Protein backbone atom coordinates (compact mmCIF):
# COMPACT_ATOMS: atom_id res chain seq x y z
CA UNK A 1 0.00 0.00 0.00
CA UNK A 2 1.42 3.34 -1.04
CA UNK A 3 1.27 6.41 1.08
CA UNK A 4 2.57 9.96 1.11
CA UNK A 5 5.29 10.65 3.67
CA UNK A 6 6.59 13.74 5.47
CA UNK A 7 10.09 14.60 4.32
CA UNK A 8 12.76 14.33 6.95
CA UNK A 9 15.94 16.29 7.43
CA UNK A 10 18.29 13.41 8.04
CA UNK A 11 21.70 14.03 6.52
CA UNK A 12 22.88 11.73 3.75
CA UNK A 13 25.83 11.94 1.39
CA UNK A 14 25.92 11.99 -2.39
CA UNK A 15 28.88 12.00 -4.74
CA UNK A 16 29.75 15.16 -6.64
CA UNK A 17 29.83 14.78 -10.37
CA UNK A 18 33.15 16.55 -10.67
CA UNK A 19 35.27 14.53 -8.29
CA UNK A 20 35.48 12.26 -5.27
CA UNK A 21 34.40 14.86 -2.67
CA UNK A 22 31.04 14.57 -0.94
CA UNK A 23 28.24 17.12 -0.59
CA UNK A 24 25.95 16.85 2.43
CA UNK A 25 22.34 16.94 1.34
CA UNK A 26 19.09 16.48 3.23
CA UNK A 27 16.23 14.28 2.12
CA UNK A 28 14.12 17.39 1.47
CA UNK A 29 16.78 18.76 -0.90
CA UNK A 30 16.63 15.73 -3.18
CA UNK A 31 14.27 16.47 -6.10
CA UNK A 32 12.07 13.34 -6.06
CA UNK A 33 10.35 11.67 -3.12
CA UNK A 34 8.24 8.59 -2.62
CA UNK A 35 6.67 6.70 0.27
CA UNK A 36 5.96 2.99 0.58
CA UNK A 37 4.40 0.90 3.36
CA UNK A 38 5.07 -2.83 3.58
CA UNK A 39 3.94 -5.47 6.00
CA UNK A 40 6.56 -7.21 8.16
CA UNK A 41 6.47 -10.45 10.15
CA UNK A 42 8.56 -10.09 13.34
CA UNK A 43 9.43 -12.84 15.79
CA UNK A 44 8.32 -12.74 19.43
CA UNK A 45 11.64 -11.20 20.46
CA UNK A 46 11.37 -8.55 17.73
CA UNK A 47 7.79 -7.79 18.82
CA UNK A 48 9.10 -7.19 22.34
CA UNK A 49 11.74 -4.78 21.01
CA UNK A 50 9.14 -2.92 18.93
CA UNK A 51 6.95 -2.47 22.01
CA UNK A 52 9.90 -1.28 24.11
CA UNK A 53 10.92 1.32 21.52
CA UNK A 54 7.30 2.42 21.01
CA UNK A 55 6.81 2.94 24.75
CA UNK A 56 10.12 4.81 25.03
CA UNK A 57 9.23 7.08 22.10
CA UNK A 58 5.87 7.93 23.66
CA UNK A 59 7.54 8.52 27.06
CA UNK A 60 10.11 10.95 25.62
CA UNK A 61 7.41 12.89 23.77
CA UNK A 62 5.26 13.11 26.92
CA UNK A 63 8.25 14.00 29.10
CA UNK A 64 9.14 16.95 26.85
CA UNK A 65 5.52 18.04 26.89
CA UNK A 66 5.43 17.81 30.68
CA UNK A 67 8.65 19.80 31.03
CA UNK A 68 7.34 22.51 28.75
CA UNK A 69 4.03 22.77 30.63
CA UNK A 70 5.80 22.96 33.99
CA UNK A 71 8.17 25.61 32.64
CA UNK A 72 5.22 27.66 31.40
CA UNK A 73 3.49 27.49 34.79
CA UNK A 74 6.65 28.45 36.70
CA UNK A 75 7.24 31.45 34.45
CA UNK A 76 3.83 32.79 35.50
CA UNK A 77 5.22 33.26 39.03
CA UNK A 78 6.19 36.93 39.23
CA UNK A 79 7.82 36.78 42.67
CA UNK A 80 11.58 36.04 42.31
CA UNK A 81 11.69 32.96 44.54
CA UNK A 82 15.11 31.27 44.48
CA UNK A 83 13.85 27.69 44.26
CA UNK A 84 11.52 28.61 41.40
CA UNK A 85 14.30 30.32 39.45
CA UNK A 86 16.57 27.33 39.97
CA UNK A 87 13.88 24.95 38.72
CA UNK A 88 13.31 27.13 35.62
CA UNK A 89 17.02 26.98 34.80
CA UNK A 90 17.01 23.19 35.23
CA UNK A 91 14.02 22.75 32.91
CA UNK A 92 15.45 25.08 30.28
CA UNK A 93 18.72 23.15 30.33
CA UNK A 94 16.90 19.81 29.91
CA UNK A 95 14.82 21.14 27.03
CA UNK A 96 17.88 22.63 25.39
CA UNK A 97 19.59 19.22 25.27
CA UNK A 98 16.72 16.73 25.79
CA UNK A 99 18.62 13.74 24.41
CA UNK A 100 21.02 13.79 27.36
CA UNK A 101 18.87 15.68 29.88
CA UNK A 102 15.96 13.23 29.83
CA UNK A 103 18.19 10.16 29.57
CA UNK A 104 20.21 11.25 32.60
CA UNK A 105 17.02 11.69 34.64
CA UNK A 106 15.57 8.36 33.49
CA UNK A 107 18.37 5.82 33.30
CA UNK A 108 16.22 3.10 31.72
CA UNK A 109 16.30 5.10 28.46
CA UNK A 110 19.97 4.09 28.13
CA UNK A 111 18.99 0.43 27.74
CA UNK A 112 20.84 -1.29 24.90
CA UNK A 113 17.55 -2.49 23.37
CA UNK A 114 16.46 1.09 22.63
CA UNK A 115 17.34 2.70 19.32
CA UNK A 116 19.18 6.02 19.74
CA UNK A 117 17.68 7.32 16.51
CA UNK A 118 14.22 6.58 17.94
CA UNK A 119 14.97 9.09 20.70
CA UNK A 120 16.13 11.72 18.20
CA UNK A 121 12.98 11.27 16.11
CA UNK A 122 10.70 11.52 19.17
CA UNK A 123 12.34 14.84 20.07
CA UNK A 124 12.10 16.04 16.48
CA UNK A 125 8.41 15.10 16.27
CA UNK A 126 7.63 17.09 19.42
CA UNK A 127 9.40 20.17 18.11
CA UNK A 128 7.66 19.74 14.75
CA UNK A 129 4.29 19.65 16.55
CA UNK A 130 5.05 23.05 18.08
CA UNK A 131 6.19 24.37 14.71
CA UNK A 132 2.92 23.23 13.12
CA UNK A 133 0.95 24.92 15.90
CA UNK A 134 2.73 28.21 15.37
CA UNK A 135 2.27 27.95 11.60
CA UNK A 136 -1.30 26.65 11.29
CA UNK A 137 -2.97 27.43 14.66
CA UNK A 138 -5.64 24.77 14.15
CA UNK A 139 -4.57 21.56 15.85
CA UNK A 140 -3.77 23.24 19.18
CA UNK A 141 -0.67 22.84 21.32
CA UNK A 142 0.94 19.39 21.65
CA UNK A 143 -0.93 17.05 24.01
CA UNK A 144 0.14 13.97 25.92
CA UNK A 145 0.06 10.71 23.94
CA UNK A 146 -1.89 8.15 25.93
CA UNK A 147 -1.07 4.46 25.92
CA UNK A 148 -2.98 2.64 23.21
CA UNK A 149 -3.18 -0.80 21.68
CA UNK A 150 -1.37 0.49 18.59
CA UNK A 151 2.41 0.83 18.66
CA UNK A 152 4.62 3.13 16.60
CA UNK A 153 8.06 4.67 16.58
CA UNK A 154 10.42 6.21 14.06
CA UNK A 155 14.06 5.66 13.26
CA UNK A 156 16.35 6.88 10.48
CA UNK A 157 18.60 5.36 7.88
CA UNK A 158 22.25 6.42 8.20
CA UNK A 159 24.96 5.90 5.60
CA UNK A 160 28.65 5.50 6.51
CA UNK A 161 31.02 8.12 5.15
CA UNK A 162 32.81 5.45 3.09
CA UNK A 163 29.63 4.73 1.09
CA UNK A 164 30.01 6.60 -2.20
CA UNK A 165 26.64 5.67 -3.67
CA UNK A 166 23.94 5.49 -0.96
CA UNK A 167 21.03 3.24 -1.87
CA UNK A 168 18.50 0.84 -0.45
CA UNK A 169 21.11 -1.85 0.17
CA UNK A 170 23.99 -0.17 2.05
CA UNK A 171 22.51 1.90 4.91
CA UNK A 172 21.61 1.15 8.51
CA UNK A 173 18.15 0.33 7.10
CA UNK A 174 18.61 -1.82 4.01
CA UNK A 175 16.99 -4.45 1.86
CA UNK A 176 18.81 -7.77 2.11
CA UNK A 177 16.85 -9.29 -0.78
CA UNK A 178 13.35 -9.07 -2.26
CA UNK A 179 11.81 -10.51 0.91
CA UNK A 180 13.96 -9.40 3.86
CA UNK A 181 14.87 -6.04 5.39
CA UNK A 182 17.45 -5.10 8.04
CA UNK A 183 16.34 -2.64 10.74
CA UNK A 184 18.35 -1.15 13.65
CA UNK A 185 18.02 -3.18 16.87
CA UNK A 186 15.42 -5.47 15.26
CA UNK A 187 17.71 -7.17 12.79
CA UNK A 188 16.46 -9.22 9.86
CA UNK A 189 12.70 -9.22 9.14
CA UNK A 190 10.62 -10.73 6.36
CA UNK A 191 8.45 -8.23 4.49
CA UNK A 192 5.81 -8.29 1.77
CA UNK A 193 4.33 -5.65 -0.54
CA UNK A 194 7.30 -3.76 -2.03
CA UNK A 195 6.50 -2.50 -5.58
CA UNK A 196 8.57 -4.18 -8.28
CA UNK A 197 9.64 -0.84 -9.77
CA UNK A 198 11.42 0.04 -6.50
CA UNK A 199 13.17 -3.31 -6.22
CA UNK A 200 14.53 -2.80 -9.75
CA UNK A 201 16.06 0.57 -8.77
CA UNK A 202 17.51 -0.26 -5.34
CA UNK A 203 20.99 1.27 -5.91
CA UNK A 204 19.59 4.67 -6.98
CA UNK A 205 17.08 5.18 -4.14
CA UNK A 206 17.96 6.43 -0.67
CA UNK A 207 16.04 5.74 2.53
CA UNK A 208 15.27 8.50 5.03
CA UNK A 209 12.87 8.24 7.96
CA UNK A 210 11.53 4.76 8.75
CA UNK A 211 8.34 4.19 10.78
CA UNK A 212 7.71 0.84 12.44
CA UNK A 213 4.09 0.37 13.55
CA UNK A 214 1.54 -2.14 14.78
CA UNK A 215 -2.19 -1.62 14.19
CA UNK A 216 -5.07 -2.53 16.51
CA UNK A 217 -5.36 -6.02 15.03
CA UNK A 218 -1.70 -6.92 15.70
CA UNK A 219 -0.33 -6.53 12.17
CA UNK A 220 3.11 -4.96 11.83
CA UNK A 221 4.22 -2.55 9.11
CA UNK A 222 7.27 -0.57 8.03
CA UNK A 223 6.86 2.74 6.21
CA UNK A 224 9.89 3.91 4.23
CA UNK A 225 10.53 7.46 3.12
CA UNK A 226 12.45 7.34 -0.15
CA UNK A 227 14.24 9.97 -2.22
CA UNK A 228 16.16 9.93 -5.46
CA UNK A 229 17.94 12.09 -8.00
CA UNK A 230 15.73 10.54 -10.67
CA UNK A 231 11.96 10.69 -11.06
CA UNK A 232 9.67 7.93 -9.79
CA UNK A 233 7.29 8.59 -12.70
CA UNK A 234 5.81 5.40 -14.14
CA UNK A 235 6.16 5.26 -17.91
CA UNK A 236 2.84 4.43 -19.59
CA UNK A 237 2.05 3.77 -23.24
CA UNK A 238 1.21 6.98 -25.09
CA UNK A 239 -2.46 7.37 -25.98
CA UNK A 240 -4.59 10.07 -27.54
CA UNK A 241 -4.86 13.01 -25.16
CA UNK A 242 -8.14 12.79 -23.26
CA UNK A 243 -9.68 14.86 -20.49
CA UNK A 244 -12.39 13.97 -18.04
CA UNK A 245 -14.36 15.76 -15.36
CA UNK A 246 -15.80 13.96 -12.34
CA UNK A 247 -18.65 14.95 -10.06
CA UNK A 248 -18.56 13.40 -6.59
CA UNK A 249 -21.83 12.82 -4.76
CA UNK A 250 -23.40 10.58 -2.15
CA UNK A 251 -26.16 9.17 -4.36
CA UNK A 252 -23.50 7.42 -6.48
CA UNK A 253 -19.78 7.58 -5.91
CA UNK A 254 -19.01 9.62 -9.03
CA UNK A 255 -20.34 10.54 -12.45
CA UNK A 256 -17.89 11.54 -15.17
CA UNK A 257 -18.30 13.95 -18.07
CA UNK A 258 -18.78 11.00 -20.46
CA UNK A 259 -21.91 9.91 -18.60
CA UNK A 260 -20.36 6.90 -16.86
CA UNK A 261 -21.59 6.29 -13.33
CA UNK A 262 -19.74 4.43 -10.55
CA UNK A 263 -22.02 3.22 -7.78
CA UNK A 264 -21.36 4.09 -4.14
CA UNK A 265 -20.37 0.82 -2.39
CA UNK A 266 -21.25 2.14 1.11
CA UNK A 267 -18.86 -0.19 2.90
CA UNK A 268 -19.56 1.17 6.38
CA UNK A 269 -23.33 1.04 6.04
CA UNK A 270 -23.18 -2.56 4.82
CA UNK A 271 -21.71 -3.76 8.15
CA UNK A 272 -23.00 -0.99 10.41
CA UNK A 273 -25.35 -3.34 12.29
CA UNK A 274 -22.71 -6.03 12.77
CA UNK A 275 -20.19 -3.45 14.03
CA UNK A 276 -22.73 -1.92 16.42
CA UNK A 277 -23.52 -5.32 17.97
CA UNK A 278 -19.80 -6.07 18.39
CA UNK A 279 -19.21 -2.68 20.02
CA UNK A 280 -22.12 -3.13 22.43
CA UNK A 281 -20.69 -6.49 23.44
CA UNK A 282 -17.28 -4.85 23.93
CA UNK A 283 -18.85 -2.15 26.10
CA UNK A 284 -20.61 -4.72 28.31
CA UNK A 285 -17.38 -6.66 28.82
CA UNK A 286 -15.56 -3.45 29.67
CA UNK A 287 -18.16 -2.50 32.28
CA UNK A 288 -18.01 -6.00 33.79
CA UNK A 289 -14.21 -5.84 34.04
CA UNK A 290 -14.37 -2.45 35.80
CA UNK A 291 -17.06 -3.72 38.15
CA UNK A 292 -14.77 -6.57 39.14
CA UNK A 293 -11.85 -4.10 39.53
CA UNK A 294 -9.79 -5.66 36.75
CA UNK A 295 -7.58 -3.70 34.38
CA UNK A 296 -8.86 -3.80 30.81
CA UNK A 297 -5.46 -4.90 29.54
CA UNK A 298 -5.72 -7.97 31.79
CA UNK A 299 -9.35 -8.80 30.95
CA UNK A 300 -9.07 -11.62 28.40
CA UNK A 301 -12.70 -11.54 27.24
CA UNK A 302 -12.51 -7.78 26.75
CA UNK A 303 -9.30 -8.07 24.72
CA UNK A 304 -10.79 -10.83 22.55
CA UNK A 305 -13.82 -8.70 21.75
CA UNK A 306 -11.63 -5.62 21.14
CA UNK A 307 -9.77 -7.64 18.50
CA UNK A 308 -13.11 -8.57 16.88
CA UNK A 309 -14.17 -4.90 16.67
CA UNK A 310 -10.76 -3.88 15.31
CA UNK A 311 -10.93 -6.62 12.66
CA UNK A 312 -14.32 -5.36 11.43
CA UNK A 313 -13.06 -1.78 11.27
CA UNK A 314 -9.93 -2.89 9.42
CA UNK A 315 -12.05 -4.81 6.92
CA UNK A 316 -14.11 -1.68 6.21
CA UNK A 317 -11.00 0.45 5.75
CA UNK A 318 -9.26 -2.11 3.54
CA UNK A 319 -12.27 -2.57 1.27
CA UNK A 320 -12.76 1.19 0.93
CA UNK A 321 -9.06 1.86 0.23
CA UNK A 322 -8.93 -0.95 -2.33
CA UNK A 323 -11.96 0.52 -4.12
CA UNK A 324 -10.50 4.05 -4.08
CA UNK A 325 -7.13 2.81 -5.37
CA UNK A 326 -8.75 0.95 -8.29
CA UNK A 327 -10.90 3.92 -9.35
CA UNK A 328 -8.17 6.55 -8.96
CA UNK A 329 -5.55 4.47 -10.81
CA UNK A 330 -7.95 3.77 -13.68
CA UNK A 331 -8.81 7.47 -14.07
CA UNK A 332 -5.18 8.62 -14.01
CA UNK A 333 -3.87 5.91 -16.33
CA UNK A 334 -6.53 6.45 -19.01
CA UNK A 335 -6.67 10.27 -19.08
CA UNK A 336 -4.11 13.04 -19.44
CA UNK A 337 -6.24 15.55 -17.54
CA UNK A 338 -8.59 14.75 -14.64
CA UNK A 339 -10.69 17.56 -13.18
CA UNK A 340 -12.61 17.32 -9.90
CA UNK A 341 -14.44 19.75 -7.68
CA UNK A 342 -12.56 21.14 -4.70
CA UNK A 343 -14.23 19.73 -1.59
CA UNK A 344 -13.71 20.77 2.00
CA UNK A 345 -14.72 17.72 3.98
CA UNK A 346 -14.45 19.53 7.30
CA UNK A 347 -17.17 21.96 6.26
CA UNK A 348 -19.33 19.27 4.65
CA UNK A 349 -19.28 17.15 7.82
CA UNK A 350 -21.10 19.92 9.68
CA UNK A 351 -24.24 18.77 7.89
CA UNK A 352 -25.31 16.08 10.36
CA UNK A 353 -27.84 14.62 7.92
CA UNK A 354 -25.04 13.74 5.46
CA UNK A 355 -22.03 13.37 7.78
CA UNK A 356 -22.13 9.56 7.86
CA UNK A 357 -22.51 9.24 4.07
CA UNK A 358 -19.68 11.74 3.45
CA UNK A 359 -17.33 9.95 5.86
CA UNK A 360 -18.21 6.56 4.40
CA UNK A 361 -17.50 7.54 0.79
CA UNK A 362 -13.93 8.78 1.46
CA UNK A 363 -13.81 11.82 -0.83
CA UNK A 364 -10.78 13.43 0.81
CA UNK A 365 -8.76 10.23 0.56
CA UNK A 366 -9.81 9.79 -3.07
CA UNK A 367 -8.71 13.30 -4.06
CA UNK A 368 -5.38 12.75 -2.28
CA UNK A 369 -4.84 9.56 -4.27
CA UNK A 370 -5.57 11.37 -7.54
CA UNK A 371 -3.09 14.10 -6.59
CA UNK A 372 -0.06 11.89 -5.96
CA UNK A 373 -0.87 9.37 -8.69
CA UNK A 374 -1.08 12.15 -11.27
CA UNK A 375 2.46 13.14 -10.33
CA UNK A 376 3.56 9.51 -10.31
CA UNK A 377 2.22 8.76 -13.81
CA UNK A 378 3.14 12.14 -15.31
CA UNK A 379 -0.48 13.23 -15.75
CA UNK A 380 -2.35 16.37 -14.71
CA UNK A 381 -4.97 16.60 -11.98
CA UNK A 382 -6.68 19.87 -11.05
CA UNK A 383 -9.51 20.86 -8.72
CA UNK A 384 -11.95 23.68 -9.44
CA UNK A 385 -14.39 25.72 -7.41
CA UNK A 386 -17.69 23.78 -7.35
CA UNK A 387 -19.78 26.96 -7.18
CA UNK A 388 -22.83 26.66 -9.46
CA UNK A 389 -21.50 23.58 -11.28
CA UNK A 390 -24.75 21.79 -10.44
CA UNK A 391 -27.06 24.75 -11.06
CA UNK A 392 -25.58 25.81 -14.44
CA UNK A 393 -26.83 24.52 -17.79
CA UNK A 394 -23.89 23.15 -19.76
CA UNK A 395 -25.44 24.11 -23.12
CA UNK A 396 -26.41 27.75 -22.52
CA UNK A 397 -24.79 28.67 -19.16
CA UNK A 398 -28.14 29.55 -17.59
CA UNK A 399 -27.96 29.40 -13.79
CA UNK A 400 -30.90 28.00 -11.88
CA UNK A 401 -32.04 30.38 -9.14
CA UNK A 402 -31.64 33.46 -11.34
CA UNK A 403 -34.71 35.35 -12.49
CA UNK A 404 -37.96 33.64 -11.52
CA UNK A 405 -36.44 30.13 -11.26
CA UNK A 406 -35.66 28.21 -8.07
CA UNK A 407 -32.42 26.44 -7.25
CA UNK A 408 -32.26 22.69 -7.65
CA UNK A 409 -32.57 20.71 -4.43
CA UNK A 410 -30.77 17.46 -3.62
CA UNK A 411 -33.91 15.57 -4.60
CA UNK A 412 -33.83 16.94 -8.18
CA UNK A 413 -31.79 14.32 -10.04
CA UNK A 414 -33.06 15.39 -13.48
CA UNK A 415 -34.06 18.82 -14.71
CA UNK A 416 -34.87 20.78 -17.85
CA UNK A 417 -33.23 24.12 -18.56
CA UNK A 418 -35.93 26.85 -18.77
CA UNK A 419 -33.78 28.87 -21.20
CA UNK A 420 -32.87 26.29 -23.87
CA UNK A 421 -35.18 23.36 -22.93
CA UNK A 422 -32.21 20.98 -22.62
CA UNK A 423 -32.90 17.98 -20.43
CA UNK A 424 -30.06 17.18 -18.03
CA UNK A 425 -29.07 14.41 -15.71
CA UNK A 426 -27.97 16.41 -12.70
CA UNK A 427 -24.60 14.71 -12.04
CA UNK A 428 -23.63 14.36 -15.72
CA UNK A 429 -24.29 18.06 -16.32
CA UNK A 430 -22.22 18.97 -13.24
CA UNK A 431 -19.30 16.79 -14.45
CA UNK A 432 -19.36 18.56 -17.84
CA UNK A 433 -19.25 21.97 -16.14
CA UNK A 434 -16.39 20.83 -13.93
CA UNK A 435 -14.39 19.70 -16.96
CA UNK A 436 -15.05 23.00 -18.74
CA UNK A 437 -13.78 24.93 -15.71
CA UNK A 438 -10.71 22.74 -15.47
CA UNK A 439 -9.77 23.21 -19.13
CA UNK A 440 -9.98 27.00 -18.87
CA UNK A 441 -8.23 27.14 -15.50
UniProtKB/TrEMBL annotation:
<dbReference type="GO" id="GO:0032196">
    <property type="term" value="P:transposition"/>
</dbReference>
<feature type="domain" description="Probable transposase IS891/IS1136/IS1341">
    <location>
        <begin position="235"/>
        <end position="350"/>
    </location>
</feature>
<keyword id="KW-0862">Zinc</keyword>
<keyword id="KW-0479">Metal-binding</keyword>
<dbReference type="InterPro" id="IPR010095">
    <property type="entry name" value="Cas12f1-like_TNB"/>
</dbReference>
<dbReference type="Pfam" id="PF01385">
    <property type="entry name" value="OrfB_IS605"/>
</dbReference>
<protein>
    <submittedName>
        <fullName>Transposase, IS605 OrfB family</fullName>
    </submittedName>
</protein>
<feature type="domain" description="Cas12f1-like TNB">
    <location>
        <begin position="363"/>
        <end position="434"/>
    </location>
</feature>
<keyword id="KW-0233">DNA recombination</keyword>
<dbReference type="InterPro" id="IPR001959">
    <property type="entry name" value="Transposase"/>
</dbReference>
<dbReference type="GO" id="GO:0003677">
    <property type="term" value="F:DNA binding"/>
</dbReference>
<keyword id="KW-0238">DNA-binding</keyword>
<dbReference type="GO" id="GO:0046872">
    <property type="term" value="F:metal ion binding"/>
</dbReference>
<dbReference type="Pfam" id="PF07282">
    <property type="entry name" value="Cas12f1-like_TNB"/>
</dbReference>
<dbReference type="GO" id="GO:0006310">
    <property type="term" value="P:DNA recombination"/>
</dbReference>
<feature type="domain" description="Transposase putative helix-turn-helix">
    <location>
        <begin position="35"/>
        <end position="73"/>
    </location>
</feature>
<comment type="similarity">
    <text>In the C-terminal section; belongs to the transposase 35 family.</text>
</comment>
<dbReference type="InterPro" id="IPR021027">
    <property type="entry name" value="Transposase_put_HTH"/>
</dbReference>
<dbReference type="Pfam" id="PF12323">
    <property type="entry name" value="HTH_OrfB_IS605"/>
</dbReference>
<keyword id="KW-0815">Transposition</keyword>
